[in-house]
């Protein structure tokens, strides 16, 4: 207790009990994350100072060129995630000497890029995933916590030396884009317009360095309910032979480069009959995320029997999901008063297996914009098959059901809430 933290953590493991070892390792991890984030903030501040004198993104300069060949709408029941797009796209170019140029809405079209453009060689690409909703009562268009997506996109862009921008300016421009293409959004609950803001480095060079030019664009795809016939619980394969993200890495950023390497493990899991990978980290086999969603576990405390909702802490390896944050916020507001504990903490695969064996595992679900929640039925881990607590006849647990309803009611304006931002 008297030793300074770092010194304590360098003591040999043999002098400490297993429990102490775990606590100290968690502390070291949190410390290294703090170290990285402090260093990172300093670095980012320098980059921002460099750019401060350049013109920012300016919605008042928007130029709109409307399509002369409007697309035929796809019938609601035939909508497939990310397959069809609206009539237009929003683009804003940036150069190191001129800053952000005038934003443009144009007909949806191919990009024309030199084969030597840096995005193709060194993965200068970051993206976002968010949705616009049409309120069934009054046809207003709404976004859900868009400032969170903007902050995250700026963090992703800055990490790969791409320019940052005013989140308010881009939200404003996205609003104009959504209004123009709103005929693509059915005004029925469950339907929405999936928005894909993307930023790429466009400099034509094979030299490895900060791009001198960039393009930020937004495309939009109308989507139907993720579960058209009601929830369908998924089965996971706990994955230890491949690692999605690591301390000091970029797992907390939505960089395209994070996703391609996850496809082979996903195919392997699919071959064995599992829908998604449950990404584990380290010798302790901490649970991190599921596929491209954050993971939530509901369990009862061994001693007190108190119900607890747990998700992994934001230590730099976890994507800061908007849905994750919303689930945590709602749980603190609406479940804690009912006696629940809400925790962002490390949880090992072993802890889940123990909870299951002792009948304390209540439910497990993924959380992300596409599905809101994805209930989990089984997790394959080593030679075991862990049953996550769903009855054979159910596809979702109580908390997953509750969260989906609470969040959807806010998104579609059934419940007025500051998280729902009306496009005017
Ligand atoms: C996008 C994403 C999430 C979910 O984030 P939301 O903002 O809730 O959609 C979670 N994990 C990963 C790895 C992601 O890419």
UniProtKB/TrEMBL annotation:
Q: What class of enzyme is it?
A: transferase
> Does the keyword Transferase feature in the UniProt annotation?
yes
- In the Enzyme Commission scheme, what number(s) does this protein have? 2.6.1.42
Give the UniProt keywords, A-Z: Aminotransferase, Transferase
Please state what the protein is called: Branched-chain-amino-acid transaminase bat2
Question: What species was this sequence derived from?
Answer: Neophaeococcomyces mojaviensis
- Phylogenetic placement of the source organism: Eukaryota, Fungi, Dikarya, Ascomycota, Pezizomycotina
């Amino acid at each position: 207790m008297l030793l300074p933290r770092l010194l304590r953590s360098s003591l040999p493991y043999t002098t400490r009990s297993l429990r102490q070892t775990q606590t100290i390792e968690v502390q070291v991890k949190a410390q290294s994350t703090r170290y990285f984030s402090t260093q990172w903030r300093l670095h980012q501040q320098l980059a921002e100072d460099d750019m401060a004198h350049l013109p920012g993104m300016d919605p008042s300069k928007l130029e709109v060129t409307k399509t002369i060949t409007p697309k035929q709408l796809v019938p609601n029941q035939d909508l497939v995630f990310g397959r069809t797009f609206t009539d237009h796209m929003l683009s804003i170019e940036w150069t190191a000497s001129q800053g952000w140029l005038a934003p443009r809405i144009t007909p949806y079209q191919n990009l024309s890029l030199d084969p030597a453009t840096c995005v193709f060689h060194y993965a200068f690409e970051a993206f976002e995933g968010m949705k616009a909703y049409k309120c069934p009562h009054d046809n207003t268009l709404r976004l859900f916590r868009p400032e969170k997506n903007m902050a995250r996109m700026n963090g992703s862009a800055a990490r790969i030396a791409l320019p940052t921008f005013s989140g308010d300016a881009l939200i404003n421009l996205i609003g104009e884009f959504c209004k123009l293409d709103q005929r693509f959004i059915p005004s029925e609950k469950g339907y929405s317009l999936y928005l894909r803001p993307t930023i790429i480095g466009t400099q034509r060079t094979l030299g490895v360095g900060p791009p001198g030019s960039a393009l930020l664009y937004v495309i939009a795809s109308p989507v139907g309910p993720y579960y058209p016939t009601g929830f369908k619980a998924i089965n996971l394969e706990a994955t230890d032979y491949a690692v999605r993200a690591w301390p000091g890495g970029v797992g907390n950023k939505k960089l395209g480069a994070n996703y391609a390497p996850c496809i082979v493990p996903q195919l392997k899991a699919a071959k064995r009959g599992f829908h998604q990978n449950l990404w584990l980290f380290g010798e302790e086999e901490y649970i991190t995320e599921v596929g491209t969603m954050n993971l939530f576990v509901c369990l009862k405390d061994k001693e007190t029997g108190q119900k607890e909702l747990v998700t992994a802490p934001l230590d730099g390896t976890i994507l800061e999901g908007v849905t994750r944050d919303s689930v945590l916020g709602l749980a603190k507001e609406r479940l804690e008063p009912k006696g629940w504990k809400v925790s962002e903490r490390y949880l090992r695969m072993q802890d889940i297996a123990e909870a299951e064996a002792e009948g304390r595992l209540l439910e497990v679900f993924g959380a992300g914009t596409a599905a809101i929640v994805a209930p989990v039925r089984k997790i394959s881990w080593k030679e075991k098959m862990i049953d996550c607590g769903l009855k054979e006849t159910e596809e979702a647990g109580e908390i997953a059901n509750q969260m989906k309803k609470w969040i959807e009611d806010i998104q579609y304006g059934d419940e007025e809430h500051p998280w729902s931002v009306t496009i005017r």
